[in-house]
Amino acid sequence: MTATDPALTALTQGWCALSLLHGRIEAHIERALQAQHDLSVREYSLLDVLSRQHDGVGGHLQMKQVADAVVLSQSATTRLVTRLENRGLLERYLCPTDRRGIYTNVTQAGLLLLEKARPTNDSALREALDAAAENPELAPLVRAVETLKTSASVPA
Questions:
Q1: What's the mean pLDDT in 104-113?
Q2: Structure pTM?
Q3: Can you give the three-state secondary structure of the chain, one letter per residue?
């Protein structure tokens, strides 16, 4: 394959379209969450991921799993957790069976904020997808997103 190979060019154009769609969606959601709830997209995502934890086998996430779920490095995730902890939205505690492990839980205040922010997130996502669907280059990607059937699982 050369740089002028049509397959490579199509692949590059597809990636650029996907990146553009992601950027537009994230920017639209970011503006809505910041304006109405003083939350960033990453903060919202972290609260959402951690709110899905439960007691029992596989119920709590290691920081690496959390970092993977919110698509950040471990150090950036730690800074994000610290920011939300300072706002009273998260709390950390030692794992009862492994004193080296630290868990992070969403506080009641965090759950309340997440509950209030979820409709904003969902509405902003719908708005961003509807706007993107009007662009012929992005419309096929919007349809693909709308038809995806995935679980809200965290990568292992």
A1: 94
A2: 0.84
A3: CCCCCHHHHHHHHHHHHHHHHHHHHHHHHHHHHHHHHCCCHHHHHHHHHHHCCCCCCCCCCCHHHHHHHHCCCHHHHHHHHHHHHHCCCEEEEECCCCCCCEEEEECHHHHHHHHHHHHHHHHHHHHHHHHHHCCCCCHHHHHHHHHCCCCCCCCC
